[in-house]
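Please check our next protein.
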Amino acid sequence: MRDLLAGTPPKDFDIATTASPQQVRRSIYNSFIIGRRFRLVLVKRNDKQFEVATFRKEYNPTEFPDGPPPGDNIFGSPEEDARRRDFTVNALMFDPVKGEIIDFCNGMSDINEHLIRMIGEPGPRLIEDPIRILRALRLAHKLRFSIEANLRNAIATHASDVAKSVLPRRREEILKILRLTESFLAIQEAHDLGVLQHLIPSFGEIFSSADKKNIFSGYIHRLHQFVDDPSQPVELFAILTLAYYRSTIEQDPTVKVHANDLIEHPKFQPLFRNELGLFNYEQRLIARAIHLQFDLANLSDFESKKDNQKAALINNEAFGIALLMAYADHLISPGQLYYLKSEQERLVTQNRPNRPGRHRPHRRIKFNKDKNESFVKK
């Protein structure tokens, strides 16, 4: 509802009901209860799948003297479910039977005023879950809304709490911010509110110099021109890493660097592992791509190679990421990028083994010398 009302095409729809997961499963054919902590019903229709959730409410110790049920499975009413959401614009619902919007938290007013407002007191709710700080920033820039004043002040006050959240959740929010159309503006506001120094401390150096900031922002502003598939985390992290590398370590893309030197660099160690939460294979891939992109700059050398030599380069696991980086660093032109991708597709197709067909077994002809006759042995 939020995205539709804000004029943004929704990625999907959340379906919720007062029926329990067991009741939903019994009422809808071809449905299955999934999830251990948060019980949902997965409904399959041809090649599509829908998730149906039951309205939840906050845990009340007086209702459960023996402690809360396992997971987030305390069922409630639509209003109770709405009031446990983070922001008012996320609490809007639509009744498909009555054809009307249900608004328990004045979300429509904030949609009209283009505001991101916390449900309840912002301070305690941010302490309860510091990831809401990043969600507020991301949502504001996704919808092009402003952060309501009380929430904005609370974010600045509790910015350091971001570091208390678990790294995998911070990683996911960073990726979602990078997928925004104007991700640099969200990063800039995170810096202005004091959040960035706790989220990605390494980036503090970028904002300490106008020149470094301009170099970094140049890459991030054009991020979606370079990335082939934004759903792939390694592509987003590769351009983010390149922007950091060019703005703080080495500005000249023609200077070759070895992958191991990058992985072991004192600036990359905390950034990769503790701040971005990169997996080992992602670290290795990005470092190899920065090393490999130098070899792609000399296109005449590549063109002179035989197909088996080209294939050896293209089969390098970092080749695809290196292409994106070489283009971002202006080492190759759009036409050269197209040529290299075409060669990659041609050689991959050419070297792909044919699917083995069904063949009749070979028959061996043997000769019986004694009887002077031949026979076939299968």
